[in-house]
Amino acid sequence: MYDFLIVGAGFSGSVLAERLAAAGKKILLVDKRSHIGGNAFDRTNEHGILIHQYGPHIFHTNSTEVFEYLSRFTAFRPYEHRVLASVDGKLLPIPINLDTVNGLYGWRLSSEELERFFVSVAEPRSVVRTSEDVIVSKVGRSLYEKFFRGYTRKQWGLDPSELDASVIARIPVRTDRDDRYFGDKHQAMPADGYTCMFENMIDHKNISTVLGVDYRNIADDVHYRTMIYTGPVDDYFDCCYGKLPYRSLRFQHETLDTPLHQPCAVINHPNDHAYTRVTEFKHLTGQEGPRTSIVYEFPQDDGDPYYPIPRAENTEIYQRYQTLTERTHEVLFCGRLGTYKYYNMDQVVAQALALAARIVGVNRQELLALSA
Ligand code: FAD
Ligand code: UDP
């Protein structure tokens, strides 16, 4: 008899399993994939290089609580992520900063001059509603078209004017020379990879793990009190209100016979090619060696659901499912797919910790104080 059947061994399912096990609950953790870690799964490939199977995962958070919690299961290697965008035949820093604009136009503006330039080209918006509004209201149309419009159309299959402001608002605009992709207080990579961290997290006598099995194929044969579901929420309800749209990706992994392929971990291609970005893993992991592994991301509609698509009409569909989840007392929903939110890893961890605290009936500090 299990207290919880947890569907999905990604961040949300694993954090819930770990904290509920610490609270003395018996857990069956099931994933239909053959591995743990969900989309954060990494592995050593046939060339001995640590790769992220489902695209680059860079850990960053402003939550010291989340960072310290994960640090129980892994050492972290300091890493600040930097990205270049290939625009007009040049490799330029993204997020847009002083060097981006000076490099693009061959100027030598100061930060103050750049601020004035942005004001002169910005298209004011009384309400910033869409992702297009976010950028054109800050840096004008030309930079928007060079760096954002094409990338977004490729990535989402939608124009930025059709997407919530929150999507492109993830990317700041700077007038100084800070070229880090993220501004968070904690930026680091798990020293031995994500999968190793997940192994440590779910290594507990109260947790049994079953991989390569859809929960539907075992749910009737297993005795449990409550299910926690972290798969796609519409899927759970057999798409009774219609399919929620997700964006998928095709990952093309390659290993090259050269020690390093590109100057930084990620190069974005807003305007050329069918892929959006190329990631070289050795920059993320600090690994050294004669060969290097990279991955191209080709966005597509069909395939594994990777991205909930933030826009009003999808939120409306999700809200109908959310109402159903509130009425389905024997199942709790969590995670990026389970709550249809474009969440980063740290947000998913925070959400899972909050749910675990609610289940156990304690506050967050008390939950975190339970010893494994
Ligand atoms: P998932 O990791 O999707 O786990 C859900 C699990 O449920 C899956 O393993 C799935 O197989 C399983 N499942 C679904 N249905 C069933 C079923 N019927 N039966 C059994 N199992 C089932 N975040 C960052 O913070 N930084 C980044 O740099 C970053 N980069 C990303 C890059 C890409 C390409 C993608 C797609 C995401 C990225 N993310 C990043 C986001 C990050 O992947 C997610 O926030 C996080 O992995 C979500 O964890 P989760 O447990 O909610 O979902
Ligand atoms: N984006 C863009 N150009 C870029 C980088 C990002 O237009 O060079 C937009 C695009 O819509 C993208 C979103 O900003 O989907 C969020 O970017 P992020 O790098 O956070 O995406 P993720 O890593 O989640 O795929």
Could you explain how this protein is built, in words?
A seven-stranded mixed beta sheet has the order 8-7-13-14-15-12-16. Helix 1 (11-22) packs parallel to helix 12 (345-360) and helix 4 (111-121) packs across helix 5. The protein is of the alpha/beta class and 372 residues long. The longest helix is centred in the middle third of the chain and has 26 residues, at 131-156. The protein has 13 helices and 17 strands. The radius of gyration is 22 Å and the shape is globular. Uridine-5'-diphosphate (UDP) binds at residues 85, 94, 147-148, 151-152, 155, 167-168, 170-171, 268, 270.
The total strand number stands at 17
What percent strand?
15-25%
Number of domains: 2
- N- and C-termini, Cα separation: 21 Å
Structural class: alpha/beta
